[in-house]
Specification:
Length: 306
């Protein structure tokens, strides 16, 4: 039987961090512990739990089956301590040394990460920010466990009773092509759209593509010549080819500042996207999550649509 007297909170913190980092040195940096201290903690965990827990493979500490079964319960215990026990003492951003984890898409990182970093540096100088990208199924579990504080973006899969949300702004879509593209000298028509060759984006984290939904109402198919995995690469590719792309308007505006591209209104209706911040109901009253939500909402003021 497990002797709880031999299992302290710091051991659980090390175990939780090992899942995230897979590297003893990085765990030490994250938890502000020396490498020998982390190794010693792992040794104690192996004895207490009766399992190797993590085995080195190709330079990475990979969890055993026993460890994998412990991941969610350990995360839930730590999240409960942070919110239900320590959270009651309040949250002071000026002295907080914690890590904020926010789920953002690649477009979301461009739109939100710079402003978040700027505000964190000014108001919570000892805190750190990490952004992640994961599909809605894994994201829901991570938010329930407290591994992700906030998700920002177009997140229809998180529209359930266990999550709360706030609309930040709306954005539409535009088409982009290289400047001087001869096919669009007179503008972009529906015929020109379907005669063009296209570059599209396919991501495991995107289960709802509103452009594809809109195109499904038209009895024609566009010719997709190239499919890429990230939106942030599209403008660079378009600027150097004859491909046409349909991308979020905020990304197109920012890309036009860096690349020689032209913007065109789509020749068919694409529904506007509501960008929201979403959090788990378990952490609705968490002082640190409330503070982070207010920070994100402040960034989005006066942006009803983009």
């Amino acid at each position: 039987m497990l002797d709880l007297r031999r299992l302290d909170l710091n051991l659980l913190r090390v175990l939780d961090a090992l899942f995230e980092e897979g590297n003893i040195t990085r765990v030490g940096q994250r938890l502000q512990m020396s490498q020998p201290t982390v190794s010693s903690a792992l040794g104690k965990l192996r004895v207490v739990l009766g399992d190797e827990l993590f085995l080195r493979s190709n330079g990475v500490m990979r969890p055993t089956d026993r460890a994998l079964r412990l991941r969610a319960p350990v995360a839930a215990v730590l999240a409960s301590i942070r919110t239900d026990i320590l959270g009651e003492a309040g949250f002071d951003p000026e002295t907080d040394q914690g890590l904020f984890t926010v789920s953002l898409s690649d477009v979301g990182e461009l739109e939100f990460a710079p402003g978040l970093v700027e505000r964190l540096t000014a108001r919570a100088p000892a805190a750190a920010l990490r952004t992640i990208l994961c599909d809605p199924h894994r994201l829901a579990d991570a938010m329930e466990a407290g591994d992700v504080d906030l998700a920002v973006g177009y997140l229809p899969d998180l529209n359930t009773a266990v999550f709360k949300q706030q609309v930040l702004f709306q954005h539409g879509y535009v088409c982009i092509a290289r400047q001087g593209h001869p096919a669009f000298a007179e503008g972009l028509t529906l015929e020109g759209y379907f005669n063009a060759q296209h570059v599209t984006v396919s991501q495991e984290t995107r289960f709802h593509d509103l452009t594809e939904v809109a195109l499904g109402q038209i009895p024609r198919r566009r010719q997709v010549t190239l499919t890429v995995s990230h939106y942030v690469n599209v403008a660079h590719i378009v600027s150097r080819t004859d491909l046409l792309a349909t991308i979020p308007r905020p990304l197109a505006k920012r890309s036009a500042e860096a690349y020689p591209i032209a913007l065109f209104e789509p020749p068919f209706d694409i529904p506007a996207v509501e960008i929201k911040q979403v959090w788990h109901r378990r952490f609705d009253a968490s002082p640190r999550v409330v503070w982070l939500r207010n920070l994100v909402a402040e960034m989005s003021q006066n942006k009803p649509s983009l």
